[in-house]
Amino acid sequence: TDDENYRRPAYYDLEQRTFEVSDVKIPIYIEGKALRYVLIMDLMLESSNRYIQAFFTENKGAKAYMIYDRLHNSLEPVVPEFPLEYEGKQVIKKRIQQELNKLLREQGIEGEFNNILLKNILAG
Length: 124
Fold this sequence. Notes:
There is one protein chain. This protein is α+β, with helices and mostly antiparallel strands. The chain contains five helices and three strands. It has a three-stranded antiparallel sheet. The N and C termini lie far apart (57 Å).
């Protein structure tokens, strides 16, 4: 009966469900400027199962390009000050999570990305 009520803790298998994606570029919109600026972010992606992590990291990350393509083609330019504020980071994380979960559904992969962590943000 105790076994029936037992739930694994949230951090169970976290290492096998988490992986890093570096150098994700998001365009920045600066009014009146012709030059293209970007935010370069390093992300830590936490998935709901180990299969998602394995899918994107096997063969030295051969399928990770799908994440880069999806984010590059679907995220709209942002105002440069916005992502550096708390609210801006939350909006970007939520948008990235939505896009990556759409990608999983399109690929027929069960599960979802539970959490997106912004490790680094650089403007360039």
